[in-house]
Amino acid sequence: MNDSIIYALDFDGVVCDSAVETAITGWKAGTTIWKDMPDAVPRAIVEQFREVRPIIETGYEAILIIRLMYLGKSTAAIYANYSAKVQRMLDEIHLSIDDLKKLFGETRDNWIASDRADWIAKNPLYPGVAEKLRRLGQRHLWCVITTKQERFVKEILRANNIELADERIFGMDRKLSKPEVLKGLKAQHPGQPIYFIEDRLPALDGVQKHPELADVKLFLALWGYNLAADHAVAAGQAIVLQQLDTFLSDSLGVV
Q1: Which residue stretches of the chain have pLDDT < 70?
Q2: What molecular function does GO assign, one term (predicted)?
């Protein structure tokens, strides 16, 4: 595969539409912190969560966002001074980010243990993506670069009969930023083009801050968790606005 392209794919919002599962996991975890929250997550909150999903970088944030929604905060209110809101809530509950990451992961583990089929069903792949990845693997090398914990990526890929070696799943467990992973791929595969497909504009902006990654081709996955405002900003940068049907049609360079 010396002439192949290295496809570096974000997971949530590119491969997997995990918004509903993330909302429910956030709610389940939240009920262990705030005892006034009932066991069942209201449908309206799950629906509102999709509107706020683009602001989330790492899954644990869903716990805090879900709490804000339960307290009646609007989508606009959550977006306003988001970082300050997160810090204030962490101070109030006396938990660290690492505590919340652990709680979020354990909540998922418990859900999988009690009803794996239901958990998988709440993590559907985007239409056509499974077939695309199987086809991609026949000629090109692809990997996942995500802030998700790796065991959950493996569960979802396995459930969809998609083979990907463990060493090609770069998740939270590695404690590497996405630019660091891309630099590692460049070192391992010198001279081969790298396509980074990501649905969050801040992640793409982060790559652009590293001059040594200037030759990595950047794609904003418009089918994922982003906003019209993100599209407008990306259009003025060296970022390709990618529609799902174009990605599926092999027009990124796969014959």
Answers
A1: 1-3, 250-255
A2: hydrolase activity
